[in-house]
Amino acid sequence: MTWRKASRDEIYTYYNQEFPAYTDQIPGFITATGPKEFGLSFRDRHPIRKDGRPDRDFIRRATWRTDSTGEQLSHNFDGFEDVLSFIQSPARHDPFGDSEYALADPDLLVKSDPVSAGVYYGLDNWERPWVIAVDIDAKDIAAARAERELAEVESDYDTHHDERTRDEKLLGESGIKAADPADYPYAFEDLERAIEYGFETRDIFESEFSAEETMVVYSGQGVHVYLLDDDPEHDYDESSREVLNDLLIERYEIPIDPVVTADRSRLLRVPYSLHAEVCRVVQPIDSPAFNPRTDARPQFLE
Asked: Whole-model pTM?
């Protein structure tokens, strides 16, 4: 079995027919006015209203309008139904509709309304402390595995002209890129290992930090692990998050992306959104036995 990208029609079908049934299962810290931002990515660039500005394949939309001091003035979404409408039809329901930076109206273009290839929310939050999340990606596990397996032939890469990146060379030479899912920068065994690492990280949160509220989310090509305790003791600042990163990487050798944990402006995929690059549903999971090949299939693949 391998992965494939969702088509434009499949993405449209998912957000209009399948995703609405999941909206009441989205974790409680992701509300219409909680995260400071939502983000959408598009496969095809779409113009904005302002002349002379480049077309966009990624947009961020604040959940609140603020003044120059950051004081909240009014919210951009009245409820999650407005967020859903924005996801389903970004240009027609752009909350920046009165701004020259809004997506251009499809009715005035030859180009159709873009579809949301990726749906994201901001870890920085108005209603609770900055969310603690750890990102573990299968491609990073695969790259490290390829490097270990091919360390002895490293010198060969320096003596032959090759326009591929170092990781691409390693993945090609090791056979990882040819393994299922073919042409992706990891094999299914790397994705399975990412899920295992996710639950190891959750156990570390619970044992080292006495965390009571944690969550592991299958992200499409890896996992996100959350520490969600609503306790002042766990309101980590930048320096304490660096300590957390060092603990996971150096003591426990968990292959995380440290920038995700430490960057307040980072966006992550919304649970139950569609990872369109692999046709799988992002979702919280309860066990490392979770199999994304069968357990995360959207209905349009059934």
From this structure: 0.93
